[in-house]
Amino acid sequence: MTVESTAARKPRRSAGSKTGTTRTTDQSAADAPAVDAQATAAKRVTAKRAPAKRAPAKKQAAKPAAKRTGTGADPDLVQLLTPEGRRVENADYDPYVSALTSEDLRGLYRDMVLTRRFDAEATALQRQGELGLWASLLGQEAAQIGSGRATRPDDYVFPTYREHGVAWCRDVDPTNLLGMFRGVNNGGWDPNSNNFHLYTIVIGSQTLHATGYAMGVVKDGADSAVIAYFGDGASSQGDVAESFTFASVYNAPVVFFCQNNQWAISEPTERQTRVPLYQRAQGYGFPGVRVDGNDVLAVLAVTKWALERARHGEGPTLVEAFTYRMGDHTTSDDASRYRHDDERAAWEAKDPIARLRAYLEASNHANEGFFAELEAESEALGRRVREVVRAMPDPDPFAMFEHTYADGHALVDEERAQFAAYQASFADVEGA
Ligand SMILES: Cc1ncc(C[n+]2csc(CCOP(=O)(O)OP(=O)(O)O)c2C)c(N)n1
Ligand SMILES: [Mg+2]
């Protein structure tokens, strides 16, 4: 499915493009002059360092203002599909999804269903002892599919450890995600094949990598954008604050995509922030938008808008996808120890897949045959995942000592010898 291609491509970013004056969407009148000054400085730096080969400035297409106000019950939330699956109008973001065909809409549904199935299969495999750990995305399918489908192949994606739906959109084979969780490799895919970086466990650090990468994109004169995923808990990390500062002052073409799933392991979001997370962006001088993270159309629209800003030299955007982690933090966690079932039940009523299905059915975008075929495809995916994981060869246990230092190290040599002695201690048992 090529949802991305439905949006018109815009001019390439250039050194002289509007960096500050268009960033009015999230600024109050009072702070505008300060931000303008900052943006001018950013433009100066960018222009000085820009390679000569980059295209001259082109006139910007008119952009819609970032709406912080939605049309639903929550005025802060951008929503195009209500939890009941009713389409609501939004003049700012409708243009980003208006060209979607029935096939595109079915494609988004298929993406979410298959991603959920893959995720459920991985959780079951962990319970069966086939994986060491799994971080489920249950409940976050719309946030991930909507944003993932908004990206172009030449964009670069920096995920956390939970972005299985985004990986799906980037054509990373889902079975490749499982090697690390089985402990047989350190990643399992080539980041440069799909412009999808390796999973990052060090909370928030990938926002710095993404910002640096985005600054490099500008130096290359390319018109691609970068998107960095992180969580509500990660928003408290210094790395994230630093990346916001750098991205802002260097006007880096990066979208900070925060999946606020309400929990950071056992810490609720109110322990991370006193203000809605999207409002943090204002202090850094770029727009922030809160989108209904369980509404795939709204997420697609808002992320497209933010990526286009980046492409056109308008700098970073913070997108807060307001969603919910339906499962445990990982399979090592037990969320029933710290949160109530009624909270989960309230979010179940906002399920991202159920709401798109309701819309597809009510609008005749899909018939029973489609849903039946998808169920069969889902079963087949589950079977394939089980077979591939069980067939993954164990690595040579000594391989882990080979990649720590390029030229070897006395301490690693010592540890290798200790490990060899430990392994040898099983010889008697095995022989008995
Ligand atoms: C720098 C760092 N500190 C702590 C941890 C341990 N840790 C792993 S996941 C997690 C919570 C992250 O929560 P959030 O950013 O909301 O992402 P979510 O897991 O909810 O997707 C923490 C604290 C870590 N991996 N890295
Ligand atoms: Mg979280």
Topology:
Layout: H1 32-49, H2 102-127, H3 141-148, E1 156-158, H4 164-169, H5 178-182, H6 191-194, H7 205-220, E2 226-231, H8 238-249, E3 254-260, E4 263-264, E5 267-268, H9 280-284, E6 288-292, H10 296-311, E7 317-322, H11 341-348, H12 352-362, H13 368-390, H14 410-424, H15 427-431
Parallel strand pairs: 1-2, 2-3, 3-7, 6-7
Antiparallel strand pairs: 4-5
Helix pairs in contact: 2-3, 2-12, 2-13, 3-10, 7-8
The structure holds thiamine diphosphate and magnesium ion.
Structural features, described:
- The chain is of the alpha/beta class and 432 residues long.
- It folds into two domains: 4-390, Rossmann fold (3-Layer(aba) Sandwich); 400-431.
- It contains 15 helices and seven strands.
- A five-stranded parallel beta sheet has the order 1-2-3-7-6, sandwiched between helices.
- The radius of gyration is 23 Å and the shape is globular.
- The structure holds thiamine diphosphate and magnesium ion.
Q: What helical percentage do the residues reach?
A: 40-55%
Number of helices: 15
Tell me the radius of gyration. Answer: 23 Å
Shape: globular
What is the second-level CATH architecture of the largest domain? 3-Layer(aba) Sandwich
Average of the residue pLDDT scores: 86
Key terms for this structure?
single chain, 432 residues, alpha/beta, Rossmann fold, 2 domains, five-stranded parallel beta sheet, two-stranded antiparallel ribbon, 41% helix, disordered N terminus, binds thiamine diphosphate, binds magnesium ion
